[in-house]
């Protein structure tokens, strides 16, 4: 085992539970692949990046995370278009994509995951119901070049990036979104956002439960989506 692998895996498991294991798997995979990660968080308020940095050695692959609750913060910190927020609000796929793309630029990362949603209680000011959550993963030009070069050699990766948003939740894509079902929103993979950045996945969730339950489930889903994106890029 290499010294870098030892540095990542040493120490107690964070939380000692499923979230700690998921965070450890993400950190180990990203560190082994030389990928830098970032987060852009609204309803989870930094809990995703906190789970990642609880893993010993996370500094090898976690660049940082932004917790942006207000529209103004999303625009100032992540560069989310103010007109988009005024027109559509914060809880939608387009805003999730813009947040993830903004985190890539802010932290010079290879992959960034975003979370935006309504934790409750009750709907938001636009009537979006509690439990509605949107996630996105953006990839830098470096990560996309790596994925495409691997696809040219192996034949499978280009298909994965072209259809990644659907493939992330392909086992549930034929079911309507409900209290316990997540679904891909459109075919967002490899969609350019104007600077060579690509969108590997967009996910919508309809989560049951109270505010803490919705926020906790959103953190777990974001870690899962980030792990899937790392696997797409690395072919693992």
UniProtKB/TrEMBL annotation:
<dbReference type="Pfam" id="PF02464">
    <property type="entry name" value="CinA"/>
</dbReference>
<dbReference type="InterPro" id="IPR008136">
    <property type="entry name" value="CinA_C"/>
</dbReference>
<feature type="domain" description="CinA C-terminal">
    <location>
        <begin position="23"/>
        <end position="142"/>
    </location>
</feature>
<feature type="region of interest" description="Disordered">
    <location>
        <begin position="1"/>
        <end position="20"/>
    </location>
</feature>
<protein>
    <submittedName>
        <fullName>C-terminal domain of CinA type S</fullName>
    </submittedName>
</protein>
<dbReference type="InterPro" id="IPR036653">
    <property type="entry name" value="CinA-like_C"/>
</dbReference>
């Amino acid at each position: 085992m290499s010294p870098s692998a030892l540095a990542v895996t040493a120490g107690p498991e964070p939380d000692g539970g499923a979230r700690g294991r998921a965070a450890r798997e993400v950190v180990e995979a990203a560190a082994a692949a030389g990928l830098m990660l970032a987060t852009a968080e609204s309803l989870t308020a930094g809990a995703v990046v906190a789970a990642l940095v609880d893993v010993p050695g996370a500094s090898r692959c976690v660049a940082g995370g932004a917790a942006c609750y207000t529209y103004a913060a999303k625009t100032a910190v992540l560069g989310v278009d103010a007109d988009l927020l005024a027109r559509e609000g914060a809880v939608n796929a387009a805003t999730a994509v813009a947040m993830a793309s903004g985190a890539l630029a802010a932290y010079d990362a290879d992959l960034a995951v975003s979370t935006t949603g309504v934790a409750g209680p009750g709907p938001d000011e636009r009537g979006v119901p509690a439990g509605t959550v949107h996630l996105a993963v953006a990839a830098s030009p470096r990560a996309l070049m790596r994925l495409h070069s691997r696809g040219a050699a192996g034949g499978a990766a280009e298909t994965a990036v072209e259809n990644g948003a659907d493939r992330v939740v392909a086992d549930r894509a034929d079911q309507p979104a409900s209290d316990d079902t997540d679904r891909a929103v459109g075919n967002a993979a490899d969609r350019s956002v104007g600077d060579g950045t690509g969108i590997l996945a967009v996910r919508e969730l309809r989560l049951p439960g109270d505010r803490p339950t919705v926020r906790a489930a959103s953190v777990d889903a974001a870690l899962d989506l980030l792990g899937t994106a790392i696997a797409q890029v690395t072919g693992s």
